[in-house]
Structures are given as C-alpha cells and as structure tokens.
Write the structure tokens for this entry.
Amino acid sequence: MIQFETSMGRFCVQLNSEAAPKSAKNFLAYVKAGHYDGLIFHRIIPGFMVQGGGMDAGLDSRKTKKPIKSEADNGLSNKRGSIAMARTQDPHSATSQFYINLVDNDFLDATHNPPGYTVFGEVVEGMDVIDAMAKVASTTRRGYQDVPVEPIEIISATIVK
C-alpha cells in the first residue's frame, strides 16, 4: 500500500500487482526513488479526475524513466477511487503521471474505448481528501488548464504495510 501525505491531507492507495504488474512495479519504483515528493496535483477536473505525479508547483516537469507498455486490457475499470496511469495519445507512453477517478469513467477502459487507460490500483483510505481536491478553484497557467490556483503538494509518498 502507498500512503500519500499531501497539503490537503492523507490518502492511501492499494496497488493491484496481479492485474497490472508492470504499472504497479513502475509506480513503486517512482515511490521508492522519492520522485513524487514535492510534486503537485496539476490537473483537477470536478466530476472527472485529479492528476499528478509529473510537475512541481512551477509546472516544471521532473525527469522520468522510459515509458511502460500499456496494461489497459487487464480487466480493471476506471471506477470511482481507482488510480490509473496518465499518458499521451500513445498508449505505451505512461511514465510517472497518474490520475484518480472521482466518478465511474468506464469510457476510459480498453473495453469501451480501445486502447484505454491502465488502472493499477484503488484508493482504500482518504477518498474524502481526493473529493476535497476536486472542490478547489482552478485556472489556466503556462498553457495548462484545470490547474489548482493554490498548489496541492504531494509532501511524501511512502510504502506502508
């Protein structure tokens, strides 16, 4: 399980390494390296999702490892509280960025919209913190839309038993 301490509170994510082994391993490697510490949730769309794991408060990207192969067809769904890999139009472009679904977004699943987005776990504690994030004011900054006016920082992401 991964515990996130953020400027808005704590939440925990349980990874599903059985259904999404490459994505879970990739995510764990970023956590172990301290990659997420000091980054922000840079994209928040109420009624959809919150996204983070790639940018600092200045909207500068942090260096990432090579992209991983998509596992979107793993049977997991983009349901409320699930965590999934963010990517570009290339289905095999996911690196460190992730998003947490605020509602059921099954249109993002490979079964409904090939190639889909890889779900690799779910929030098991602190979904109220994620819901609170969805209520903050957002703006457009440096060409990015839906950026919280006040940065929501990931203070730390750690592995807990």
Summary: The longest strand covers residues 9-15. The radius of gyration is 14 Å. Residues 2-159 form a domain with the Cyclophilin fold (CATH 2.40.100.10).
